[in-house]
Each structure stands twice: as C-alpha cells, then as structure tokens.
Amino acid sequence: MAKVKSKYVCQSCGYETAGYLGKCPECGSWGSFVEESTVSLKNAPAEVHDTFPPMKLDEIEMNSEIRMSTNISEFDRVLGGGRGKCISAANSTTSELCQGIVQGSLVLLAGDPGIGKSTLLLQTAGELCKSGKKVLYISAEESASQIKLRAERLGIKTDRLYIYPQTNLELAKKYIEEMKPDLVIVDSIQAIYTSQIQSSAGSVSQIRECCNILMHTAKGQNISIIVIGHVTKEGNIAGPKVLEHMVDTVIQFEGDKYKTYRILRSVKNRFGNTSEVGIFEMSGRGLTEVRNPSELFLKEYSQTQTPGSTIIVTSEGTRPLLIEIQALVGTTPYPAPRRVANGVDTGRVLQILAVLEKRIGLNLSKQDVYVNVIGGMDVDEPAADLGIALAIVTCVRDVVFDSHTAIVGEIGLSGEIRAVNHIEKRITEAQKLGFKRIIIPEANEIQDKIEGIEIVKVKKILEAITRGVARDN
Ligand code: TYD
Ligand code: MG
User: Which in 48, 125, 231, 241 has the greatest CB count within 10 A?
Assistant: First the structure.
C-alpha cells in the first residue's frame, strides 16, 4: 500500500524539513514553508537497469547531435548550434553546421507572465508544422478555443499542430508516447500536475516531479520538449529556479512588458554558447524577429539629444549592440544622496563614481545620480564603464555629447582605460550604423584607421573626457 507522507517545503528554494519553520535556513526567506504530501511507494520494486558497464573515455563512440531548426533564426541562435546532423525542412538533411533544438532535449523557457512565452512557442509550432513537423501543444492554462483564437491572430493554419488542453501530466504523457510528435510544448510547468504527488499544482515538489517525468520522456522517447515556466516579480523564481539544474537548456524571455521589444537569452545550455541573445518585437500579429537590433535601440536617440546621454557598443555573445545610456545628476534633497541604476549593476556605477571623484575631482557628494540603460536591456559587462562615466560627466557639465561618437572601454580603479574583447566587431557595428567616431581603449592594440570611422584611442579617464566631451564645448 502506498503511504502518504507529509513534509514542509520552502517555496523559494525547495529546502525540505519535517516540521514547519518560520525562516528558511537555506535561503533566508520568511513564511515560505508550505506543507506538501508525497505518496511513498515503499514496497514497490525499484526499477534499476544496468544499461552499460563503465567505459573507457577513448572507447566511447560519439553520436553527433541531431538538431531541428525552429525556422525562427533569432530563436535558433539562442538555442545554439554547431557541427552535427540537422533535420531541416525537407526531412533529415545532413548539414555540417546546424542551429536549433537538440533532439531529445528538455528546454525551459522562463519569463514574466504576459511577456509572450505562449506566443513565441505557438509561432514556433506554426513554423515547424509548415516544414512538415508534428507538434503537440499541451495547454494547462488556456482552453483550446483560446489557443485557436491566438493562432488565428498569428495567421497559423496547419493540420499538423495538435492542441491538448490538459493539466494532468500522466494523461499528457500517454499522448506524447502514442503520437510521437517532433516537438512537445508544455504550457506551463506551474499549471500541470502529476498524480504521484498530492500537493497542489505549482508547488515546488510538483514542479520538480513533473520536470523529472518530462525529462525521462524526452530522453526515453527521443522527443524534444519545451516547457514554459513563469517567473515571479520578486525574482525568487520558485519554480524555474529549482528546475534550472534539471533541464538541458534554460532560456529566459525578458523585456519591458509595456514596450514592444523582447530579448531571448540563454542562461544555461548543455548544447551551446550561453551568451547569445535573440531580439524580437511584439506587434499586433505576434512576435517579429529584429535583425538589426542596434537600429531599434537607437531609434529615439537622434531625436532626443540631451546632456547626459551617450552610446556604448556592448557585446552580447558574439553580437555587438549599440545602446544608449542616460545619466541624470542633480542636487539631492536627502541627507544621503541617492544612486539609482537601471539595467547596469549599482555596484559598478558606485565604482565609476568613486573613480570620477578621486581621479578627476568631480564632487558628487551632494548629488543624486541616476543611470539608465535605454531599451530594457541589462548590460553587465565592464566595457560599458566609459560610456556611463561620460554620460555622468556630460550631465554634470550640461553639454550634449557628440551624437556621431560611440564609446567602449572598461575603467580601472586608477582611472586607466582597460582593453575590451571583440573590439573589431564593435567598431564595425558602430561604423555600419553611421557613427563617425569611436572612443576605444589604447590597450586594445588595433590599427589606427578603419574605413569610414575615426578611431580615438584613450589611456586615462581624463583623456577620454577631454577628447570626448571638450570637442562640443
Ligand atoms: P502571452 O504569450 O500570452 O504571454 P505569456 O505566455 O508569457 O504569459 O502574451 C501576452 C501578451 O502579448 C498579451 O498582453 C498580448 C500580447 N500579444 C500581442 O501584443 N500581440 C499578439 O499577436 C499576441 C498573440 C499577444
Ligand atoms: Mg502563456
């Protein structure tokens, strides 16, 4: 007889205890414990199969990965690729280089509610069906007619896409095994439940167990599965966080819900590079790919030229992006001045302010400083330092920075400008977008002249300010 056992599970991090606790000893959250029951199959025989004995590394035969392109190139880019077999439109073509979802892998697509996860996957399903694939969309959140309505809006017409509104995973699994689709979409992991656990759908135990079952199905049947996971606003991503180590790939869908563009970012990828991003724009007819994202981020720049705004060239994965940075500096009404950073790390901004105070004598002790990255992107590379510093300086001096100049460079504590990676790619991108000048670190040993763009090499922060700002004074 199966025995029902009860335990308390922290909904933030998944820590388990036998009795109720007010504060989680693992992650420090208060009031996060919820009682959950599991059915323990104590007397059931353990299913253990010894498939292979241990093998010597050099005796292992390597099977090349088989990938399936989603036919959405921004999505494929994030899923990663490499040399391997590719099942493309005309069924099982072999190609040397292929991007897309690896056959038999489990992918988690995480993001805030309403960001467009269901839309992206329904569009992907539509594209795959167009190229002859069979897709099963298990919807635990929306009814079949709601999905039909969305599909109409997205212009999807196909007889290969199967919609199955179901919240029970065992029933869904039966159809996955029977139908053997090329791709299964589970929308969402928080809404689906397994009968093996008695706690409610969305609890940590349910999410973990459902993910486990899906992982076995993906590997056992060699079917690719994408699961959707919602992220809560507080950032302690109850569900998806505990899943991250279980799935093969974690893709995050980010962006400002009130703006139109969305960023797809891979945060974990067993089959590819994790720093790639894909950029989309949400329109009335779904998500469209943005092939030239820099143009999108700079759209408003030339129209709104104000002091305290600069353009940096950041590098997301292998792709350079031009992004506007804005700074606002003003006398503080508070006893302690405020430092607010949006899209960049506050610690990094504090460090830049300390260097500006110490090395060029900029006195900001009675000033509030706000730094903002336009476009909802998160810039977490030090190459943005110099652009942030110059935005602050131009705001303090109330001058408009030359709108044809882009900036890259990391600032060291002694005020030196340090080298950055992918410098050629960054320069070329700036030149392609019509920038006439780029300020780069001298430490990046690169030729002086590149067709169509003037290169200004700087060694120290002061030099960057005089050469970057003084020109317009
Ligand atoms: P949805 O995919 O339902 O988000 P999620 O699954 O991540 O919760 O998308 C929700 C938002 O997208 C909703 O506010 C409406 C908007 N949307 C469009 O702007 N255009 C479209 O064509 C579609 C389908 C949705
Ligand atoms: Mg949804």
Answer: 125
Same domain, 33 and 124: no
Q: What is the total count of domains within the chain?
A: 3
Tokens of 274: 């994790």
State the ligand closest to the CA atom of 112. Answer: 1
Q: At what angle do helices 169-179 and 204-221 cross, to 10 degrees?
A: 10
Expressed as residue numbers, the domain containing 342 is: 296-468
CA of 257 to the centre of ligand 2 (A): 13
pTM value is 0.77
Same domain, 376 and 247: no
Instruction: Quote the ligand 1 centre to 113 CA distance (angstroms).
Output: 9
Say yes or no: 300 and 287 in one domain.
no
The answer to whether the beta carbons of residues 384 and 352 sit under 8 Å apart is no
Measured in Å, residue 445 CA sits from the centre of ligand 2 at 48
Nearest residue by C-alpha to atom 25 in ligand 1: 286
The series of mean pLDDT values per 10 residues for the chain, 473 residues long, is 74 83 86 74 58 79 80 90 65 66 93 91 94 94 94 93 94 94 93 87 86 93 93 58 85 78 86 80 88 73 76 83 92 92 93 94 93 84 94 92 90 94 89 88 83 90 81 44
Comparing C-alpha atoms, which of 397, 245, 261, 405 is closest to residue 325? 405
Determine the length of the chain: 473
Distances (CA, A) of 269 to 83, 121, 185, 288, 316: 16, 18, 18, 24, 16
Mutation choice for ligand 1 from 188, 256, 282, CB with most ligand atoms inside 8 A: 282
Which of 108, 109, 119, 233 to mutate to test ligand 1, by most ligand atoms within 8 A of the CB atom?
119
CA of 187 from ligand 2 middle (Å) equals 7
DSSP H or E stretch at residue 118: helix 117-130
CA 177 / ligand 2 centre spacing (Å): 24
